[in-house]
Amino acid sequence: MTQLLLLIVALLVLGHVPPGRSEFKRCWKGQGACRTYCTRHETYMHMCPDASLCCVVYGIRPLPSKTESV
C-alpha cells in the first residue's frame, strides 16, 4: 500500500514539471535558443534582449548578405 501511494505521489509531481525546451526563448530566426551558457555543440551568435546568449548549433550558418560577391 505504501509503494502504491509513493507511486501516485511521484506521478503527480512529474505531471507538474514543464517540458525542457519550453524554458528557453528562441532567437536567430527561430534557429537558436537564449541561454546563460551554450552547450559544446553550439556557438554564441549575439545577445538576446534579456542579456543572455543566443546559442546556435554549429551546422547552422547565417545567410550571406546580397552585397557580398561569391
UniProtKB/TrEMBL annotation:
GO terms for cellular component: extracellular region. One of its GO terms (biological process) is positive regulation of chemokine (C-C motif) ligand 5 production. The keyword Signal applies. Pfam families: Defensin_beta_2. It is found in: Secreted. Residues 26-55 form the Beta-defensin domain. Keywords: Antibiotic, Antimicrobial, Defensin, Disulfide bond, Secreted, Signal. The keyword Signal applies. This is Beta-defensin. It comes from Acinonyx jubatus (Cheetah). The gene is DEFB124.
